[in-house]
Amino acid sequence: MTATESTDVLVIGSGFGGAIAAYHLAAGGARVKVFERGPWLKADDFEHDFKLGASYTRVFDFVIGDGMSVLGGNCVGGGSVVYFATMPRAPRFVFERHGSIGRRMWPAAISRDALEPWYDRVAEALPVTQQTWDRVPYAGGLFAAACHHAGRTANPAPSAIDVDMCTNCNWMMAGCRFDAKRSLLLNYLPAALAHGAEIRPLHEVQHLARNDDGSYRVHYRVVDEEDYRILHGEGTIDAKIVVIAAGAGATPVILQRSEPHLGRMPHAVGRYFSGNGERLNTAVFDEDRVREVLKLSRPDGRAYEAYQIGRGPTVASWDRLDGALPEFERYSLEQLYFPPALGTILAQVPDASPSWFGRGKKEMLRRWQSWLTIFTMSEDDNEGVFGPPPETGNAHRFSQQMLGHGPLRYRPTANTRRGWSLADADVKDILERDGLSRVMPWTNDLVGAYTVHPLASCRIGDDPATSALDDRHELRGHPGIFVTDGSAVPGALTVNPASTIAALAERAMPGIVRAAQDRGVAVTYGAPSPDGETAGRRAVAHLRS
C-alpha cells in the first residue's frame, strides 16, 4: 500500500457544492484536492447516441432504491454536466416550510432575502440569464400556448445557457458538446485549477477516519474507466478540512460507512431524503387540434411534431407557487424534454391495459415527435430513509456503467400524494382541454418514484434532532467536516434546485475558510466569482489542449 498523502482540504465530489468549495479555498491559498468518482469528459467526448459506453451511460448514475430511483451526474462537473441548466431561485415560502416536523425546517439564519446575494454570485459566475420568448423552442411555445388557452400563465425560465451558441439539438442531458450549456467545466472548475487545485477523476471515497491530531484520513478506491463495478488500487489521504459534496444519494452513504471509524453520526444522516416532489406526465398531441385550437404551425406547415427540437425546459407555469396556498399544495409545472430512452419505458398509454407496453405503447412510440413531457416539482414529505450502506460506493452495481441498486427506501405519504394528484389534474386540465392531447403520468410500478434532483439526506437546520448539519454546513459532532451539496438543502424547493444548492455553497464558504484557518491552514476568503463569460472560453481552450 502506498504512503498516505496529505493536503489542506479534500473535496469529495465536483458538482456545484464541490466545485464552488474547491475554487474559493484554492483561490484563498489552500492546498486543495478534488476526488470525483466519475470520469473527466471534455466537450468533444459528449456523443449523440445511447450506446453502452457512450458518454450518456458514462456520465450518469441511475440508482434504483426501494420505492425511489435517483438519476444523477457521475463525472467531473457532477450534475452540472447533465442538467438542463434551468436556474430559478426558490420561492420565498419555501424557506418558511414546516413539513411534518411542525416547525420551520430551514435554519433561522437563512431566508430568501439572506440568500439573495449568494444567488447573485452564482448568476454572475455561470452566468445565468433570462430566456426570451423569441428564443423559446417549439415545445416551450406549445406549452405556453396551451397554458394561455387554459387561462394559466407560463413564463420562460432563467437558464445557464448561451443561446447564441446553442444548436437546439436537445442532447444537453448527455453533456453539451458545443459548450453552450454553462456547466462547471467552464467556470468554477477551471478557475480552481488555475489556482492550483488538483482534480482526480475515477476516485471513489469509501470512508473517513479521524487522526490523533483532529485531521481526517480519507480512504478511497480507483474506479475502472470502462467497468465501474471494478475497483483497482486503494489509497489514503489526510486532510485538515473535508468538504463532502458527493450528492444526496452518496454523501449519507459515505458518512454511514464512516461511523465505525469516526464515531456516532447525527440522527439525520441518511434520513429526511426528498425527491423534490418530482413527477412526470407525457402528453401525446393531436396535430390537427394543435393547428385548429391553438392556431400554431411551424414554418414547414406542420403544426408541432417537434418534441426533439430544443434545449430541455424553457417554459414553466408557476401559478401554484403561491405562499398563501396550503403546504403540500404548491408546485410548478415545467415543459421538459426527456430523451426517448428511459422515457419510452416509463411513459404510459392513456386508457390502455397494460399501460406501459403492448400494441397501444407501440402506437404511442410511433407518434413520439408529438409528445410533450411535463415535469412537476412539488412539496414532498421528506420521507426517504437510507438503509445500511453497501460495502463500496453508493450502490450495488449490476451493470458495467450507470445502473445500480441502492439502500434508499421511500414510501410517499398522503401529503406527497396529494401534491402529485393536484398537479396531475392541472396537467390534464391544461393539455387535454378541447381535445388537444391525451395525458398520462409516468408509471411508478417499475422503479418506484423517481427524481433527478435528490435533496435533504444530510440537511442543515437549527434542531440537532432533525438536521445533520448546523447552519454553517458543519457535520454535528465532527468539526472540520462540511457538506455543501444537495443533501444539505432542508426539503423540496418546488423549482429546479441547482441555483439554490450553489447559493448555499457560496454562503457556506466564509465559515469553511474560518474553520480551515482555525486548523492551521493558510487560507483567506475574498476571491471574486469566476467570470463565466471569459473563464469559460479559456477553459475550453485549456481542456481541449
UniProtKB/TrEMBL annotation:
Keywords: Cholesterol metabolism, FAD, Flavoprotein, Isomerase, Lipid metabolism, Oxidoreductase, Steroid metabolism, Sterol metabolism. GO terms for molecular function: cholesterol oxidase activity; flavin adenine dinucleotide binding; steroid Delta-isomerase activity. Pathway: Steroid metabolism; cholesterol degradation. Belongs to the GMC oxidoreductase family. The keyword Isomerase applies. Transmembrane segments: none annotated. Residues 68-271 form the Glucose-methanol-choline oxidoreductase N-terminal domain. It comes from the Bacteria. It comes from Micromonospora lupini str. Lupac 08. This is Cholesterol oxidase. Residues 526-545 are annotated as: Disordered. It holds the Pfam family NAD_binding_8.
